[in-house]
Write a structure and sequence with these properties.
The complex is a heterodimer of chains A (629) and B (292). Chain A has 629 residues and is mainly α. Chain A has 25 helices and 4 strands. Chain A has 2 domains: 322 residues, no CATH class; 254 residues, no CATH class. The mean pLDDT of chain A is 88. Chain B is an all-alpha fold. Chain B has one domain. Chain B has 12 helices and no strands. In chain B, helix 5 packs antiparallel against helix 8. The chains are: A mainly alpha (629), B mainly alpha (292). At the A-B interface, helix 20, helix 21 and helix 24 of A face helix 3, helix 4, helix 5 and helix 12 of B.
Chain lengths: 629, 292
């Protein structure tokens, strides 16, 4: 076993820390660009190197000791350092709570300090062996975080150009990537917890960046929700420690759930994951997070924060399978989240809000898959995780450009967009295509999910069927808006806005990723998803080429038909007619009034929150009852 | 059967399908006419209309309109071809669903009030029938033990175990055939022809062909409900099932007036889903009780 993968992993955490500080120091815009550009290049390279190292050694899981790292005779006590930082972080949360005069934040922070102190007091200087475990789940996450995350931060260089505090902003964004990478490599649960809480902090700081009243309130709400999840996580850690006397996540998963209270920490961790992934009934913090600048939304929704929640669920998925009722309840939370947000998204006209609901819904599908917990379902979850990251980042970024160039977030105002901003409209269309339509990658995930759900989860199946149709509704409506123009657009003198090079570069990069992933869906499954599935299950469900072949053929036909039609259909003035107006002559504006506010948001939210709360409470009951009995 | 004979049959089915659907639609028009005491057009009138459209001078509003019409046609053909080749029902469903979405986007991509209203209504129709169709396919797959069409053609008794699913699919057919009471998208007295209003000549023909393939797929799904080792009986019952579905749709069409879009959504979603779930529940209970 080589040390290379370990080094890459270490650097994937350290580089953002160093570059984050560098960005803080780089006051001039040109320096910011150099720092961020360098960071992006290094992170992309390191994550690819990590994958390459795993692939070329043929290992499906690598382990490393990192409690102490020796560099040129100097020994860095990493474990000790993380413990110290962890307590510093907790105290900082207390400080935030005091400063904002928010008793809940203080209480949640204290509730985390107590159990952690207990463990540290009893086991000071304990070691976990191995402290770092890298398998393909970590690799997938690292690739998503480092590549998609970096592209978003480069995009942010342009977006935040006129912001006075962009140095601070970028340094937090960069640090966020490091914390995410740290979390996905940690086998020591305390380390995972530390990085988990660092992401909570980064999220809080980024949402509150604008320092307006609304931003402050949203940031605080996000902090309360995710810190609450952190409390559940901290208690889960204490329960694990009391019963199994280990802090190694891998050992816990390998234990097979024989301990008397084995289910309780699993349920608590799932609860923590729900808050992080903004599942119903904890979704309100993510909707509030919309007030943050668009790059923050792109980052939170695609490659960081909410993805950490589903990462934890995927990580502990073998433990969720210990208890059938827990599987059911987790699947139900996911399915309810999917259906609720699909219905809510239809009634929105704010693009960011539509995307936020769609994120919660897609994560709901992943949560649902973890609940179903077959090899098919987990494969589906991983495929969805990868494709969702790329498409959602792309969509948020295009929405951000539209906000800058056309000064609107309202989908109804995006009429004519393909004429005004053809590049952005094209990228947006590709984003929507890849997120909802066959033969693009996400569809492979949806297909797997449906087949997985049919394995004995009929209730989930109904929610899935309704939600899936409704999803098509709001995305089709949106596509229609962008596309809607008269014939004027085809003429050479049509007005078009100039687009910044950074926007073109970053949007182009993500479009390329989305298309390449769709073309390489087979390879993605074979080289990234299957090695992880093989670790968990005896059989790998999608190995054969013939299952995925129709998708590739469809993709080729799809491209071919568009190109051919473009070539064959020539616009000449004499064949262009005007829209049918039933013989009348009037001026009109078009509106998607059909779906507006037929049902109040609050009512729908209330019903689904209630249902999901019942399910979450049932989950805690299961945790308690399995322990007592 | 040798593989090449099978392949030839499959290709023949794919080519013949739109013609067969056109003839069925011709029969449909004659039956309607007779119900209204008219003689009605010849049975191949639908085909004549189609070829006349193809030969017309093309007129359009813009290019994306045509591109999306082509994509609509492409994906309905893909869905049908995958079905004939006996592949996975879920992939077939999603390919068909993509086709419907492209039709809607095509209607949206022109700045025309009637077209937009039609597109919005078409979206509501999709929302109404798609969950029912997907659930029906899933239950067929679960009951038949496989989602692969080729395997499902070896399962004999679906019409006896899943009769309510068959009924729910007839509601889907009513919507897909643009018939009363659910012809809300193409409601001719109000919004001319909805999503199709801005298409003319050969481009209208493209959407027509797409629609025929869509119907061909739906009829194909009806044929899954009965299979027998005796090819003749099998074929006869399959044709019978399609005709029964068609005649029921006819009767519904002529006996009802158009309903509002809200009622369409409510009725299809609730009735369709309840019918399918009830059917599934009854089958499960009977199976657990050892009756079947």
């Amino acid at each position: 076993m080589t040390m290379n993968a370990g080094l890459s992993a270490l650097l994937l955490v350290l580089v953002p820390v160093i570059m984050g500080m560098a960005s803080l120091a780089a006051r001039r815009i040109s320096l910011q660009r150099i720092v961020v550009g360098l960071m992006a290049a290094v992170m992309v390279f390191l994550s690819l190197a990590l994958f390459w190292d795993m692939y070329s050694t043929g290992a499906s899981r690598m382990t490393f000791e990192a409690d102490e790292i020796e560099i040129n005779v100097v020994i860095i006590p990493v474990a000790l350092l993380i413990t110290a930082l962890d307590f510093a972080l907790m105290l900082y949360f207390v400080y935030i709570g005091v400063r904002w005069r928010n008793a809940i934040v203080v209480a949640f922070a204290v509730l985390q300090i107590i159990p952690l102190s207990l463990i540290e007091y009893a086991e000071f200087g304990h070691t976990v062996s191995p402290s770092i475990v890298i398998d393909y789940l970590s690799v997938i996450m690292a690739l998503v975080i480092s590549i998609v995350g970096s592209i978003i931060i480069v995009y942010s260089l342009k977006y935040m150009e006129s912001d006075d505090r962009q140095a601070r902003f970028h340094s937090i964004m960069i640090l966020f990537l490091g914390a995410m990478n740290g979390a996905v490599f940690s086998n020591n649960i305390l380390w995972l917890f530390f990085f988990w809480e660092v992401t909570t902090l980064c999220c809080f700081l980024l949402i509150g960046h604008e320092r307006t009243k609304e931003a402050n309130e949203s940031a605080l709400r996000a902090l309360i929700y995710t810190l609450g999840g952190g409390v559940a996580f901290a208690f889960a850690i204490v329960m694990i420690w009391l019963q199994m006397d280990t802090m190694s996540l891998q050992e816990v998963l390998d234990s097979g759930g024989t301990a008397a209270w084995a289910i309780a920490p699993v349920a608590l961790m799932a609860l923590a994951a729900f808050t992080k992934s903004a599942q119903v009934p904890f979704q309100s913090w993510l909707l509030g997070a919309m007030v943050a600048p668009t790059p923050v939304s792109a980052l939170l929704h695609s490659s960081t924060m909410v993805k950490l929640g589903v990462y934890l669920l995927l990580r502990i998925s073998p433990a969720i399978a210990w208890e059938t009722s827990l599987m059911w309840l987790v699947a139900s939370v996911g399915a309810i989240s999917f259906l609720a947000t699909s219905i809510l998204a239809v009634m929105q006209t704010n693009a960011k809000r539509v995307l936020a609901y769609s994120t919660i819904g897609n994560l709901g599908l992943i949560v649902m898959c973890v609940g179903i917990n077959t090899s098919f379902a987990i494969s589906a979850a991983l495929v969805l995780l990868i494709f969702h990251a790329v498409s959602k980042a792309l969509l948020f970024m295009t929405v951000g450009v539209v906000k800058h160039e056309a000064h609107t977030l309202n989908i109804e105002d995006m009429e004519n967009l393909r004429c005004r901003l053809p590049f952005v409209a094209g990228a947006m269309l590709i984003g929507i295509f890849t997120i909802m339509l066959p033969p693009f990658g996400m569809f492979a995930a949806k297909w797997l999910i449906v087949e997985a759900a049919s394995a004995g989860f009929p209730v989930v199946l109904i929610l899935l069927a309704i939600g899936s149709a409704v999803t098509a509704l709001y995305y089709a409506k949106w596509m229609g808006r962008i596309m809607s123009v008269g014939a004027t657009c085809e003429l050479p003198d049509a007005v078009r806005s100039k687009l910044s090079g950074i926007y073109k570069l970053t949007l182009g990069a993500l479009v390329a990723c989305a298309v390449a992933l769709s073309l390489l869906v087979f390879q993605t499954v074979q080289y990234l998803v299957n090695p992880y599935i093989a670790l968990l299950f005896d059989e790998v469900p999608i190995g054969e080429f013939d299952v995925l072949l129709p998708l590739i053929v469809m993709l080729a036909i799809f491209g071919g038909v568009i190109l051919l039609t473009m070539k064959l259909v020539k616009i000449r003035p004499e064949i262009v007619s005007s829209a049918y107006l039933c013989g009348e002559n009037f001026d009109y504006s078009l509106a998607g009034a059909y779906f507006d506010k037929r049902v109040p948001d609050a009512g729908v939210t209330y019903i689904f929150n209630f249902a999901a709360t019942v399910v979450v409470l049932a989950m805690l009951m299961v945790a308690f009852l399995t322990g007592v009995m | 059967m040798d593989w090449w004979v099978l392949l030839l049959v499959q290709i023949a089915v794919i080519i013949a399908a739109p013609f067969a659907v056109a003839i069925l639609l011709g029969i449909d028009r004659i039956i309607t006419a007779r119900m209204q005491n008219r003689v009605g057009p010849p049975v191949s009138q639908v085909l004549y209309d189609f070829f006349k459209l193809v030969g017309k001078e093309p007129m359009l509003l813009n290019r994306p309109q045509v591109i999306f019409a082509m994509l609509y046609l492409t994906f309905t053909i893909i869905a049908f071809v995958l079905f004939v080749f006996g592949l996975d029902l879920i992939i077939i469903f999603f390919a068909g669903a993509a086709g419907s979405v492209f039709l809607v986007v095509g209607a949206f991509s022109v700045r025309s009030p009637y077209s937009h209203m039609g597109a919005n209504r078409e979206l509501l129709q999709i929302t109404a029938y798609e969950p029912v169709l997907l659930l029906a396919l899933l239950i067929i797959g679960i009951q038949g033990g496989s989602f692969v069409v080729a395997d499902l053609y070896r399962v004999g008794d679906l019409i006896f175990t899943l009769p309510l699913v068959f009924v729910a699919l007839i509601v889907v057919l009513v919507i897909k055939m643009q018939k009363s009471p659910y012809d809300v998208a193409t409601a001719h007295q109000e919004i001319v022809s909805g999503p199709f209003v801005e298409y003319s000549g050969p481009y209208l023909a493209i959407t027509k062909l797409g629609h025929w393939f869509e119907l061909a797929l739906l009829f194909g799904i009806f044929t899954l409900f009965f299979n027998s080792d005796n090819l003749l009986i099998s074929a006869a019952v399959k044709v019978l099932l399609v005709l029964v579905a068609l005649i029921v749709v006819q009767i519904i069409d002529n006996a009802t007036a158009r309903l509002t879009r809200e009622r369409m959504l409510k009725f299809t979603a609730t009735f369709g889903i309840i019918a399918i779930v009830a059917n599934y529940a009854i089958v499960s209970i009977l199976r657990n009780a050892g009756v079947i």
